[in-house]
Amino acid sequence: MYLGTSTLEPFVPASIVSRSRPVPRDGAPKRILIVEDEVLLADDMAQSIHAMGLDPVGPVGALEAAIALAETQRLDGALLDVRLRRGMRVYPVVEILLRRRIPFCFLTAYIDEQIEHMPAEAVLRKPVALPVLRQAVQALLDG
Asked: Do residues 36 and 83 touch, judged by C-beta distance below 8 A?
């Protein structure tokens, strides 16, 4: 599923739009890892996730920090910027999430053919509108 911020509204199934907030089974909020190296976007994403009643993990913009969080934290989903600082790619984090069976979405402003072959729930094209981001997070949790 590709979602973006063009002048046309992205196609979003009614089932995603109409669902209520996720209800944690253990009383703890669902946790979403944010890997994004653009500070303002990362902060907006964290605030949006928090406003959904979820717990943002991060945000982090360095690959090493993202790997550490992906390996050690209880996570229910992840939002992953494909290209990070110093030209690093987020793919080592993807491997960890796949091994742990944690769903994820990519965020990117670039064309990267490698992401086409990975089982991301969605690929969000930057700049990402916050309503589109929230719909993608909801889809992660509902999947």
From this structure: no
Q: What is the dihedral of CA 41, 123, 55, 143, to 10 degrees?
A: 160
Return the CATH class of domain 29-142: alpha beta
Q: Which residue has the tokens 């599923």?
A: 1
What six digits make up the tokens of 75?
């996570």
Structure tokens at 134: 């929230």
Tokens encoding 99:
């091994």
For residue 4, the 8-state DSSP code is -
Q: What are the residue boundaries of the structural domains of the chain, listed by start? A: 29-142
The structure's pTM equals: 0.81
Between the CA of residue 12 and those of 26, 60, 69, 107, what are the distances in Å? 29, 28, 30, 17
Q: For the segment 77-106, what is each residue's pLDDT rounded down to a tens digit?
A: 999 999 998 889 999 999 999 999 999 999
Find the mean pLDDT for residues 2-21: 34
44-70 pLDDT per residue, tens:
999 999 999 999 999 999 999 999 999
Closest CA to 74 of 55, 52, 46, 93: 55
Backbone angles phi, psi at 97, to 5 degrees: -65, -40
